[in-house]
Amino acid sequence: MEIIIAIGVLWLILWWLRSRKSGRSGNNPPQPPSAPSQTPLPRTKSPAPNAYRPSSKPTTKPINFGPGSTASAASADDLSGINDAFTGRRLELSQPIFECSSCHVFYQEASMAVLREANASKCMVCGSSQLRRHGKAESNAGARNHVPDAITLSNYRNHIGQVVTFTGYVHEVKQSRRGSDYAVMFEAKSWTKGLKMVAFRGGVAKIGGAQKLKAYAGKTITIRGLLIQDKTFGPEIIVDDPAMILGVS
User: Do 153 and 129 fall into the same domain?
Assistant: First the structure.
């Protein structure tokens, strides 16, 4: 009997211990280990579809002002305000251009032909033989326009080999024996003695034709031209362009 009672008491103790253990488990369930805390990142607003987005690449290429650059070449090639030292006409930049390295005046090819044939290949301004073809991208810092001296019948012999301007009364217009050349005479002298205006290389038509030249008789004209002392025909002012007839009255 005592054995039965002892067994019952032991069973009650075991049951009480098991019940207590179950109760603890139900009231405090095991918690999983917490994840390491993280600071939430700030949310950024999505850009609008048409919003400007600056590019990291430059939109234009850097300007290069070194040798051979377009900007340097354009500046160096600017002769737009320079005139032909012989005719006085504005230079045609698309045509060959020649420069006097001494006084920095410029000539077109047609003026160089006059210079070579009638002026011993010397500059019509300073008399230098340092004439050369002017190329692109060369410096034009010293480029200048020539303003010719105005001569008279009393001092013209001091300006042989130069481009000059002259105003004089036309006594008569002489025609050559072969009929293709004319001399507009500023002195009442023979063809070979008096100062006169002539067309270069018989180019009468180029400066207006025979009838226009003959019409100068009895008038006062102002011209621009190369003054030379021809060995055969004496003092001449050579013209080669209608623009070289500056005035008629």
Answer: no
